[in-house]
Design a protein that fits this description.
The protein has helices spanning about 1-15, 15-45, 75-85, 120-125, 135-140, 150-155, 210, 230-245, 265-270, 270-300, 305-315, 320-355, 370-395, 400-405, 410-445; strands spanning about 55-65, 70, 90-100, 110-115, 130, 145-150, 165-170, 175-180, 195, 220-225, 255-260. The protein is of the alpha+beta class. The chain folds into two domains: about 1-45 and about 270-445, no CATH class; about 65-255, no CATH class. A six-stranded mixed beta barrel has the order 3-4-9-6-8-7.
């Protein structure tokens, strides 16, 4: 194997133009696929940082009559679900709010969350310091208390464990700090929120009439009970929605239904299919590169027919020759994969910098072990795709006829074979280009 590797490297050094074209071409194709795989994996496949995240769901409002899809939840409907449901082990309500923090240097704007006491248990999280909101604090008229994010505690409060019981002046109201949120509570989809306070129904921008008439102002999060499926939860919510519609026919949300959606699907939106279409287009580009480089390798191996025939005549087996030629293609693929990883890393840096507001979980996108594993598999598959058929055809050389050719050049059969493969390459590239165009068209249509 060492001899084969050394010989393969030496052959590549003798053909720098071929090596450069092949490595750069494969690098671009592999890099694009690795980068897009990293995006898809980080955004759509990586689980949320909570306990048993697959059982977390978002309750949303959907109505064709109101042209609403997965809109927010109303406070009266939340109370109805809370009273009648038997499919969730935890149920919580939340609404965002802005706070001005004063009393510690210059005033600072904080993004806050009015969250019911059930949100942390629903997510399977506990404060790293202190405690969660108590039931009394979560009732109307409860004490003003707050949970601070891990980032605020570490960066603005110096990680001081004695901050429990101290007051934060938020919107000119003193809130007592009762706990510090875990880091997972500051990651997607809760990453914007720096401060939590209880009692979502007390958000200052809603008047009682807005609360009572069923406006879509809140986010409802729940955890499925063990043994309860998503379909069973949806059926239970359909029954509750029908009862709510009969009890509150004048409410804004009365015509809508309750949709039970996995929390990850709700958080990332309906973009999964779009990115899979784009992944298909990028995959076609890699296949086009493989077809072109495979044809270059075929021509390269065909130019060495006499060398291969001589090695076979001297006792080398066809398997040994095949292994030597495939080794050369694998080295090209591995070098292309290394270039592709560098390009993917650069591209993902640009994606994170430019797409933070467009791509969910953009901050989590990067090259991790799963991406490295995908890159390795893609590289090895590419090496076999570009080298196996050309190597197999080259190793089938007729030893006697080739050695008798002398200086006459290639036979008509060899020329016909290369011409046929060139036609096949062009045809395959055309089909792949059309496929890539269709994938891109579908991607653009889904983005509208």
């Amino acid at each position: 194997m060492y001899f084969e590797l050394r010989y393969a490297v030496r052959r590549l050094f003798k053909s720098p133009s071929f090596a450069l074209v092949a490595i750069v071409g494969l690098g671009l194709g592999i890099g694009a696929n690795v980068a897009l795989f990293s995006v898809i994996d980080s955004v759509f496949l990586r689980p949320l940082p909570y306990r048993d995240p697959g059982r977390l769901v978002r309750l949303s409002s959907t109505s064709e009559a109101l042209n609403l899809t997965r809109a927010g939840f109303s406070y009266p409907r939340y109370l109805a679900v809370q009273e009648r449901q038997q499919v969730f082990s935890d149920l919580a309500l939340a609404a965002g709010n802005a706070f001005t923090w004063t009393g510690r240097g210059n005033p600072e704007q904080l993004v806050g969350l009015h969250a019911s006491a059930g949100l942390l248990p629903a997510l399977g999280l506990e404060p790293v310091l202190g405690r969660n909101f108590s039931p009394d604090e979560d009732r109307p008229g409860g004490l003003p208390v707050a949970l601070v994010s891990h980032g605020i505690w570490r960066n603005r409060l110096n990680g001081d464990p004695s901050i429990l019981g101290q007051a934060l002046l938020l919107n000119e109201t003193p809130y007592t700090i009762v706990g510090v949120l875990p880091e997972a509570a500051s990651r997607f989809p809760l990453n914007p929120f720096q401060i939590w306070v209880p009692r979502p129904a007390e958000v200052p921008y809603l008047v009682p009439a807005q609360l009572d008439n069923g406006g879509f102002f809140f986010q409802a999060t729940a955890r499925l009970r063990p043994g309860v499926s998503l379909a069973e939860a949806q059926e239970a919510m359909n029954v509750i929605a029908a009862g709510y519609r009969a009890a509150h026919p004048a409410n804004v949300d009365a015509p809508s239904t309750v949709e039970v959606v996995p929390l990850l699907d709700d958080a990332v939106g309906d973009q999964r299919q779009s990115y899979l279409m784009l992944f298909g287009a990028v995959g076609c580009v890699l296949l086009i590169a493989c077809a072109n480089i495979a044809n270059l390798l075929l021509a390269r191996f065909a130019g060495r027919r006499k060398e291969i025939a001589a090695r076979l005549a001297l006792g080398a087996t066809r398997g040994h020759v095949l292994r030597q030629l495939v080794t050369e293609s694998m080295i090209v693929a591995l070098l292309g994969g290394a270039v592709g990883l560098l390009l993917a890393q650069w591209a993902l840096g640009a994606v994170v910098a430019l797409g933070a507001d467009l791509i969910p979980r953009a901050a989590e996108i990067g090259i991790d072990l799963r991406a490295l594993g995908f890159a390795l598999v893609a590289t090895l598959a590419t090496g076999l795709a570009i080298g196996l058929l050309p190597a197999w055809l080259a190793a089938r050389v007729n030893v006697n006829e080739t050695l008798k050719e002398g200086s006459r050049g290639s036979t008509g059969g060899g020329q016909r074979l290369r011409a046929s493969l060139l036609v096949a390459e062009v045809s395959l590239s055309l089909v792949l280009l059309i496929s890539a165009g269709l994938f891109l068209t579908s991607f653009a249509r889904l983005q509208r």
